[in-house]
Design a protein that fits this description.
An 8-stranded mixed beta sheet has the order 12-11-8-13-16-17-18-19, with helices on both faces. Strands 2-1-3-4-5 form a 5-stranded parallel beta sheet, with helices on both faces. It has 2 domains: about 180 residues, 3-Layer(aba) Sandwich (Rossmann fold), CATH 3.40.50; about 220 residues, 3-Layer(aba) Sandwich (Rossmann fold). It has about 425 residues and is α/β, with parallel strands linked by helices. It contains 13 helices and 19 strands. About 35% of the residues lie in helices and about 25% in strands. Its EC number is 4.1.1.36, 6.3.2.5. Pfam families: DFP, Flavoprotein. In the N-terminal section; belongs to the HFCD (homo-oligomeric flavin containing Cys decarboxylase) superfamily. In the C-terminal section; belongs to the PPC synthetase family. Its cofactor is FMN; Mg(2+).
Length: about 425
């Protein structure tokens, strides 16, 4: 048995749109992370990117027609053996063929024979994406269990901008890996819901150069926003200090700096929302005085820095809900905890849940190589009804899906 037999098998379909060149980056990321990828482009796709490029990056032959390698019956075998079929970009033409069961080339045949998760990532001009025919095709595919990702907004071909841009390759690969690990991770159970997610770590300025901050990368908050979008939600992402992360396709991004900035942005977005998830690491304190100029280093010891407590955004949201100011949404908090002489991580978290009054508390044990600035996460979900659930170490997107699984019944209730 070869090493390839142990690797997840991905069929990467490539449609004939200008975004086909981005499929090369998706392919590179998949192969470098240990996936066996077979690229199946359309004839039109090869007018944008040559077969030699896909073959060199994947290490596999590239064909477009069902009559290639006939003894191996690739139009059946590829779909049967795949662990995931990923289509990047999924053009309006490909979506229409898939929705109507057409099979006139190797890729559309593969889509019909696949019994694994199928992820189609659209890219096209805004008018094409919003056309009633395309919307009907997307609805049909989603009803059949195909994950049709929401496209991003931004620059399209020519001078046009709008919705229909291919999401960042890193985001596409993240969704693909999520479905490989958990095929049911992206149901459309948040359709019609408004969701607010905060992410990242706030920064409290000491002077024009320096600030008080924390180690939060914002990756968990971004994963929550990304999975919520793909589960159908209208998402507002309030982000602090996350400039290194790719934008979340389909989410409205509001950037903030300080805790007070985040407080204002979240309170505004929370009005009328169904769910607010406070995943951001909000600074507990800010400098009492901010220097107008850069504090100079001198031979004498620096003056002590006075601190002022920042507002407790989570507790204020719970109170605002009780006062009828922001509706009856579900409120989710996060707790980054370490054990100490007064108690362990869970004991501190239980006390925090009681003190804050939120509906669900996501608890992370933090420390070197845990939670902050890493790709994976683990922890516990503590509910206001007293139930508790451990979440095993997995990708942050996987954990995000677990969190939404816990939130959806709370919304429905």
């Amino acid at each position: 048995m070869t090493d390839r037999d142990h690797r997840p098998r991905v069929v990467l379909g490539v449609g004939g749109g200008i975004a086909a060149y981005k499929a090369c980056e998706v392919l590179r990321r998949l192969t470098e992370s240990g996936h066996d990828v077979r690229v199946v482009p359309t004839e039109s796709a090869l007018r944008f990117v040559g077969a030699a490029t896909f073959e060199a990056l994947s290490g596999n032959p590239v064909h477009t027609e069902v009559f290639a390698d006939v003894p191996d019956v690739p139009h059946v075998r590829l779909g049967q053996e795949a662990d995931l079929v990923l289509v990047v970009p999924a053009t309006a033409n490909l979506l229409a063929k898939a929705a109507n069961g057409l099979a006139d080339d190797l890729l559309t045949n593969t889509l019909l024979t696949a019994r694994c998760p199928v992820l189609m990532v659209p890219a096209m001009h805004t008018e094409m994406w919003e056309h009633a025919a395309t919307r009907d095709n997307v609805t049909t595919l989603r009803r059949r269990g195909v994950v049709v990702a929401e496209p991003a907004s931004g620059r399209l071909t020519g001078a046009d901008t709008g919705k229909g841009r291919l999401p960042d390759p890193a985001e596409i690969v993240d969704l693909a890996r999520l479905l490989l690990g958990r095929p049911d991770a992206l149901p459309r159970d948040l359709d019609g819901r408004r969701v607010v997610v905060s992410a990242g770590g706030t920064r409290e300025p000491l002077d024009p150069v320096r600030y008080l901050g924390n180690r939060s990368s914002g990756k968990q908050g971004y994963a929550l926003a990304r999975t919520a979008v793909q589960r159908g939600a209208q998402v507002t992402l309030v982000a602090a200090a996350t400039i290194a992360l790719p934008e979340v396709a389909g989410a409205e991004l509001v950037t903030v700096g300080t805790a007070q900035d985040m407080r204002a942005a979240v309170r505004q977005a929370a009005v009328g929302a169904d769910v607010v998830v406070m995943a951001a690491a909000v600074a507990d304190f800010r400098p009492t005085d901010r220097a107008e100029y850069k504090i100079k280093k001198t031979d004498r010891e620096p003056d002590p820095i006075g601190l002022t407590r920042n507002p407790d955004i989570l507790a204020e949201l719970v109170q605002a809900r009780a006062d009828g100011q922001i509706g009856a949404q579900v409120i989710v908090g996060f707790a980054a905890e370490t054990g100490d002489s007064a108690g362990d991580v869970l004991e501190h978290a239980r006390a925090k849940l009681k003190r804050k009054g939120c509906d669900l508390l996501v608890v992370n044990a933090v420390g070197e190589g845990k939670a902050f600035e890493v790709e994976d996460n683990s922890g516990w979900l503590l509910s206001a009804d007293g139930s508790e659930r451990a979440v095993a170490l997995s990708s942050k997107s996987h954990m995000a899906s677990d969190i939404w699984d816990a939130v959806v019944p709370l919304i429905q209730a």
